[in-house]
């Protein structure tokens, strides 16, 4: 279940006849959050997805980090 304290946008999902939703690929969830600090906003954005999981789920772990940290993260992944 999604934590609705942070706005979450959904896309790329297909309903099944029994009412469940399945992902149809690509980016399927996005969260936006505010906080008194960047760190607080970042934590709230990630918290919105606690308890959410599905096969093949992947999410970025560098959202809200300073540009230099993101560049370093990307370089390490190459």
Helical percent range?
25-40%
Roughly how many Å apart are the termini? 34 Å
* Uncertain regions spanning at least 5 consecutive residues: none
- Order of strands across the main sheet: 1-4
Q: Care to describe what's here?
A:
The relative contact order is 0.19. The model has no long low-confidence stretch (mean pLDDT 73). This protein has 2 helices and 4 strands. Helix content is 27%, strand content 15%. A two-stranded antiparallel sheet has the order 1-4. A two-stranded antiparallel ribbon has the order 2-3. It is an alpha+beta fold and 78 residues long. It has helices at 38-47, 67-77; strands at 8-10, 13-15, 21-23, 29-31.
């Amino acid at each position: 279940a999604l934590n609705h304290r942070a706005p979450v946008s959904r896309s790329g999902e297909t309903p099944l006849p029994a009412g469940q939703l399945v992902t149809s690929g690509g980016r399927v969830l996005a969260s936006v959050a505010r906080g008194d600090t960047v760190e607080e906003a970042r934590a709230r954005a990630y918290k919105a997805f606690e308890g959410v999981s599905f096969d093949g789920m992947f999410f970025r772990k560098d959202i809200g980090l300073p540009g230099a940290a993101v560049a370093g993260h990307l370089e390490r992944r190459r």
